[in-house]
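user: can you give me the structure for this one chain? tokens are fine.
assistant: on it. calling the predictor now.
[tool input]
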Amino acid sequence: MSRKIAKYPTIDSIEIPQATREAWRQTLATLSQTMEVSASLIMRAHELRIEVFEKSPNPENIYETGEMSNLDTGLYCEWVMNHNRMLNVPNALLDSDWVNNPDIKLGMINYLGYPLFWPNGEIFGTICVLDQKERHYGQALEELLNQFRLIVQNQLADIYHQNRLEKTIAELLETQAHLSQQAGLAAIGEVTVNIAHQWRQPLNNLKLLLHSIKESPPERSGEVQEMLEQSQNLVQQLSEIISNFSNFFSSSQEMRSFSINEKIQATLSIIYPTLESEGIKLVVEMFEGLTAQGLPQEFGHVILNIIKNSCESFEQKEVKEGLIRIRSHQLDTREAEITILDNAGGIEIEPIEKIFEPYVTSKFKAQGTGLGLYISKIFIEQHMGGSLSVQNLSEGALFKIRLPQGELN
């Protein structure tokens, strides 16, 4: 059995708040009293039916809230929605076009109604009055009903735009979560490269030692013992590297006080071998005992992202002696400030704040996605209540991170 095609493009997904529905009931009560009619209704169209959405509470009103009628049955309201204009039927019994409409069976021979629309032009339904006797309303009462129609449509517009805003916010939050996940994966990729780099030399040394042990004759047992001790030291070194990376990717995502210096040092221990191999000098000045309130793991990712951004600037601009200065200190505002300054000549984007927008990058297209600094700003400002800014100085880009201070237990 084939599914019937919807008669009208309608929006069924938006709910009307109860407070609005109560206001509509009061409006309909006023209409019934002022116009002295049996029923005042707000009707809502659905795919194949129409619903008595709200009704005036007067005893003469025989319609029930939630009552449904099929479309394509000759209803007054259906004509209004089909033609998108007012309909005034003084007496359906005397009108050949309306003498057989379904509402006559209920005794409702009189009708006056207007269409109701969502702000995007799609039909919501109708606002109408019905009576059991012939009526000639005149222009004043027609305009009164029209004014109530405009009030209802303004409320529909507010509801529609609020719904769109909530959906947009939900989509942005979903996108932000996805980008945060991307940033985390990017950080894992970056750290994996550093693991490989830091493991390469110890593994090569360990391989040579094991080969030497294997080839050593029994009479050189003293040398073998020394090589075994060296092997154990190398294994311990590899274990410490893994421990550093495990600490960096700690799964705790609760806001807490943490040592800024310790987290920066833990992050630097990961990337330092890469900096050293690329000839980049690192100068660190730490304010003793400085703490912050926030998410340590995300803070570490931000530091890593900013340093990585400087490294890529050195490569892009072919800086021979790259220098990164990291400094932490306490502000009078009870905030902790961390500054990261390089000598790569600055960021060539105007205005410079655009560097924090998604998919904006000063790098070659083959390098990165332009999400690292965008996610970093989200981490610092939205997740931790701090601030992340950047400015160009004569020697290069200066990033400033400010976080609320914490207290370690």
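assistant: here you go. The domain at 18-166 is CATH 3.30.450.40 (Beta-Lactamase). Residues 1-5, 246-252, 364-369 have pLDDT under 50 and may be disordered.
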